[in-house]
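=== RUN LOG ===
request id: a7f3
mode: sequence -> structure
chains: 1
length: 281
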Amino acid sequence: MTLKLIEKVERRFPVRRVETRTGIISYRESGTSNDRVIVLLHGIGSASGSWLGQLDKLSSDYHVIAWDAPGYGASTALLNDRPNATDYAEVLINFLLSLEIKPYVIIGHSLGALMAGAYAVNNGAIGLALILANPANGYGAADKSERDLKLSTRLANMKTLGPQGLAEARSSALLSADASDEALELVRWNMSMLSVGSHSQAAHMLASGNLMDDAARYSGPVLVMCGAADTVTPEEGSKKIAAAYSNGHYQTLPGVGHASYVEDPTLFNSTVISFVERLNA
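=== RESULT ===
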């Protein structure tokens, strides 16, 4: 990643830390303190620094917080080597309590959508809306053989390649063929900083997760959006997740891949704002 882009992230949105009941959580923050807080939850191969386009542009009207999930960035790892989505939701609840924040909107991307969905049905406060971008449903409803294969393949890739090698091999798969060099570098940089142990924990959560099962227990407004060029969590699955929510809405993001919020932050942000404005109309 170019030094200029790293410096932009670190200078404008430096990592902060807060002590919670379940350990330290690191995060990045922007905007003035107000009641319209947007909380951003990254996916399995990412971190808080990937939300540059949202920290930069949504901060004029919102208080934006992007966390590092347990074991990512400077956040304390979970004690459970084989956690489920509820374990991450509990940490998220304690994180927000420590900041004395009630989120107005929760946005979860990919694996972060599983965390957001679990948060929503485990007494996690949401002032207005839940937004799931390019969501991973998890493999909890799949046959054990499929779950085991998905998990073992993911763990083997990390063991063989390591974080840096995984970033070099996998970053482009998260974007469309038309993505900018800056988008690719932002994805690569965040993926290269993964912890092997915490990636393993997240992989176990993905293997056991079932977002659609949580969806049946949540009645608040939900927006599910997915890039039309997403080959990681394609639109077909995202549409099923939206349909599983009693108050779910679906939106296609034309021309972008899995890391939609990185590839086209203008499109992503405008879709978020439009949904929020419709709910407030």
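=== NOTES ===
The mean pLDDT is 96.
The chain has eleven helices and eight strands.
=== END ===
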